[in-house]
Amino acid sequence: MIHLNTPITDDDIKLLKTGDKVLITGEIYTARDQAHIRLLNETDLKFEINGSVIYYVGPTPNKPGNPIGASGPTSSYRMDKLAVPLMEQGLKLMIGKGDRSEEFRTEMIKNNSVYLISTGGAGSLLSSKIINSEVIMYEDLGAEAIRRLEVKDFPCFVAYDIYGSNIFKDWWTT
Prior knowledge:
It is a single chain. With about 170 residues, the protein is of the alpha/beta class. It has 6 helices and 7 strands, in the order βαβαβαβαβαββα. Strands 2-3-4-5-7 form a 5-stranded mixed beta barrel. It is globular.
């Protein structure tokens, strides 16, 4: 088990190998398709991209007393091309579910970034690892707004590392 605290450094990235179990503590950000499209033209970011973690999630509304509703990962392939400019600015980790394109994996390695997966269908459990949630950009997008999440021991697995390994190909086909 690897424990990571945000922001993520290049040294952190070098430690991660496909299949590793990872627990993240600190601030992470949510962003899906529409938020990524807007970020490409944004000049006034409300968070630092360099060293950051983006979680591909559209949480359900929170119940009273909870900081957020169910927060399971969404399919990540839709962000493949949209994530590249963010990786070029220093985005270090992306959390989602599912396989991604070869082009994405090439850019990820080039930019010293890593893709993590979390368990789909476990949104309620994952939301229990979120201590605080605050919309910081694009409130009009509703569930797809960018949120700053404070997480403690948020569970993930390394899907692709910077060494070219792929959990979907190297682990599940052998």
